[in-house]
Amino acid sequence: MLSIFVRILLYMIENGKTRANEIRSLFVLPELVSHHLDKRPNIPAVTEYDAAQQRWVTLTFKELYDRSVMWAKAFTAANLKKGDRVAMLLPNSIEAVCFDQGALLVGLVPVPLHIIDTPDNCAYILQDSGTKVLVTLNHARWHAIEKAAGPNGLPDLQTVVFINDEDEDNGKVKGISLQNWLSSGKEVSELPPLPKQEDLACLVYTSGTTGKPKGVMLTHENIMSDISSLLYNIAPEPTDSWLSFLPLSHTFERTTTYYIGLGMGNQVTFSRGITRLVDDLKTVKPSILMSVPRVYEKVNAKIQERLKTKSLFARKFFTGAIESGWRKFCKENGLGGEGPRFMDKILEPLYEKFVRQNIKSQFGGRVRVAVSGGAAINPEVIKTFIGLGLPIYQGYGMTETSPIISVNKIGNNDPLTVGQILPGIQAKLGEKDELLVRGPQIMRGYWNRKEDTAKAITEDGWLSTGDQADILPNRYLRIKGRIKEIIVTSNGEKVPPVDIEQLIETDPLFAQVMLIGDNRPFISALVVLNKDEWKRLAVTLELDPNSPDSLSKKAVQQALLRRMKAAAKGAPQYGIPRAVTATLDPWTIENGALTPTLKIKRRILNKKFEKEIESMYTDFGKNKDN
Fold first, then answer.
1. I want to staple 545 with a disulfide (CB 3.0 to 4.6 A). Which of 163, 320, 340, 538 is the partner?
2. Is 312 exposed, middle or buried (0-12, 13-18, 19+ CB in 10 A)?
3. Is the four-CA dihedral 402, 406, 412, 413 of positive or negative sign?
């Protein structure tokens, strides 16, 4: 072990580059935690809120490793062998990390389940993966999955570990409390050897927008190579801290906040949940934040709604702060434009004090890197936050690529792109400008799906992403849309729906939007309205907001179309909806309309609203009130 003096000296000269180089010398995921034991065992690693004690609790890297070894010993005592699958259905927590690290230490393959997923989907994944051990919160969660599994049950499942419940033995599957599970490994004196680079590191099931989810096989080499490449674009400093609120079942969160955060020796704090996120941001004060566009867009919608109540001067001052910050950002990142104006420099202290500090404080006040991934973000939203001093970096990837393919770079951030393609990843365009990628980050294939794997990856290793793209100078990447989602009207116009849907959703009236129009003469829309905003609109139209008939009134239809046109003013005219069907019932995971990663299941919604969609075209131009 190094002396205390040497440790202090090393810590003083460390920076993001030295820590990144440490990671590049590692081979498998468990080393992301264990490599700190010699140099910095007692710095904070993971933090969560303990509801029972009503306080935040933290484990150091040494404590985290020791707890993970307890899990590893329990797995070993259960006679699990290298390559066996073990599943986790837990919220983000210290125990979730210890489960994952413990499994990886002994060469097992973690199968992360979405905590908000349906029992049916969970049962399917457990069956398909042949999972032998499931870790979940309580009996109720397990019973729902067991029921959903049907008469065939889960033949490979041997044990269910309950974090918050006692032992339960129904004769088929052994149910055991966390305490008893960990105690079962006390007699294990030696662990199996670490896995190899080519071994599976996880089996992550895609959300399944068009059918049953597929298990993506990612190796240690896949994920470690993606981490190593990503650190060339965004390298955390030793003093950085992270707040984790995206589910750890999401590969984006696993690779970044979890693996990179801990690998770099940063403190990772787990949020108490999306409902407490605002409070947690202010309490934790993270410097690095991983999020999906929906979070930024919701915050922006609230900002815009509050602005409506302010004076004309306050609104213009707010807009001035955004425009001034945006001009400064463009100059600093070599994006052209006019650059800062003379008045910008004079007003900058006022913008900072009265506008930017207030917005930045909503995120804790310390965020220096905020990455947006998982879907495209509205350009106006990203401009707003950048102008207000919150540096958002767009990235792009997919589960099959471990997951990051590109991300914008500190000092070279172009928000109209998803950043530079990472070093080590080859990219080219195929038919219909489909992005094809190749490199060490590419998955081994889909679990038990040779045909699907062959369709996705060519014999010489090129993966079809399914996205239309432009590869720009300096390997910057612009994504134009999902090939299978692009709408082609009967007039031949091509409409990427997500871009326009996002524009429309900047109006707080529209909670959810899905465009229709494939092989149709024009674009129409299915929309879910925000109930509070709908009540306000109904009052202005002198209609009863509680009457189901009100939504179909011609005055409402016209008002909705006007609002959509105004929100999507930057989009081409042929992409603006000319007919609309509105509902107040949200699309959720539970009713089958959304994937666990909150993507719209377009095929499902098309079928569910088949009659309404047809009537939007057959009744177009008719007076519905008559």
1. 538
2. exposed
3. negative
